[in-house]
Design brief:
By secondary structure, this protein is of the alpha+beta class. The chain contains 25 helices and 16 strands. It starts with 6 loop residues before the first helix and ends in a 10-residue tail after the last helix.
Length: 585
Amino acid sequence: MDVLIPEETIQKIRDDADIVQVIGEKVKLSKKGANFVGLCPFHNDNNPSLTVSPTKKIYTCFACGAKGNVITFIQNFEKVSFVEAVARLAEKLGVPIDIGVAGAKSQLLKKYYDILEKATNFYQFSLNNTADGQEALKYLYKRGLDDKIIKRFRIGLAPREGDLLYKALVREQCLPLDMIEAGIVRSGKNDYYDVFRGRIMFPLEDVNGNIVGFSGRIYREDDQEAKYVNSAENAIFKKGQILYNIEQARDAIRSLDGVYVFEGFMDVIAAHRAGVENAIAIMGTALTDAQIQAIKRLTANVTVCFDGDSAGRTAAKKAIYLLTEAGLNCQAVLLPGKYDPDDYLKAYGASKLKEYLTDNRLNGIDYLYAVEKDELEPTDITSIERFKNNVFRHLAFFNSAVINELYLKKMAADLQVSIETLQNDFKRSAARPTILIRKPDKPLPIRRATKKLKFENSEKALIKTLIYHREKYLEAKEKLVAYTAANRHTRSILFKLFDYYEKKEAMNIDEFRTWLDAEEALILMEILNSEFIGEYAEISELIETIKKNKYHEQANQLRDEEKTVDLLERYRETKKPLITIKTKE
């Protein structure tokens, strides 16, 4: 049943809560006259549209129409029920309230957060009060971390004994099932044991600053296990929602109006040691919408600093696209060689790392150009063409005549060719995502490297075709009501395209991109710019190919089943002479 909260309690929460402070914890606000303004978190806002009135205790967005009081803000921002929103504010204000059944989900998550908080405390105690802890501390000191840093990032130690954390939490009235669901304990045949053992522990936070999991690192030279082990994904631990250090860095990000985004937590710790306080990390995954929106609430200025190796550079390119697409001002630092920030600090010291991070920030297009040029072999025509086409794609993304002119001149000088030659090639590439792309005279073949790629490219080619031929979408929609997708992102784009055409008479690519999330928008751009994905006037072949994916998967499954049957048959034949069946006489 739902709980009935007295109206006077609700009114007290509305009156006592500082709406500017509550919203200001989620959105960067600036004072403007008697009110405060900021970017609205309820739509893709690039100009401050949200107004917060401290006297009226309300907020209003003049762009999307969102409005309400402090309770409705928490309800809509954190996507919780009215009762859960009231309960969260009540807890913040110290107002006693019984949330009852309606707040069960919120309480369930809070239970997990509490367990992980207790686990963090236990790990910290273990690091500072055990013999193994002294050995782990020596390792951390050797890595350049001092007691202040260790305490600041709440670094701890998981004991080597198999169940000490479990036993400690049982004494604090934590239930075994809750520990299992929180991802720190597993069950054996007759007992329970700790997930992390013999590892230095780093607590990980979600975008709201809750500890949701851990990363554990080995510290003994003779240890042959994996260097790092992270919590498994569960109800609260999702890599795409991790922003390491965001809670501690929140004030620095706001005051400096900027943030450094790193790949891993050791990079953040290195930056902190160098005096860079406004640093967070994404734990080695691609940026997600949740992470980008969390960053956007704090600042519009982002500096990406990923590893200097090939994988780090590729991830940085993608991050620049996604952050720019979200309306953020994006810069990037290109680390020399294959250094990551932690390696650079160890090689050159803290002051040099801070100096490098501060003095070597490039705007997005400068970074992209620098990376492409760094991989250019001036005497290799294949490398030249790759360099040229990659830069063309970056220019198309930014879609600026000024940027085009500047960088085509720069390319001409670097390649020692005429600006006119490059301009002609750029026009022929027809690689602008915001206008209709040149239609080829005849269909381009789909790359056939693998079966999966064949189906995936067919989906992409269909999307590209329908972008230019709205009249064909009904046929595609009717024939593809249900099918086995080769790629979930292209399937999502395709069905959003169907929905778009249900409401729109013509295609506006810029408008359609707003219907997609950041990942999908990037994929759409890649589809439209790709030279090997052609636009087809006839879609029947594409639909037929796409629908065959289901049969391809079924055929693979059937072949696997046949192999299994064949293996069992051969095993049975081999064993026949060795088996004696006893019967009653």
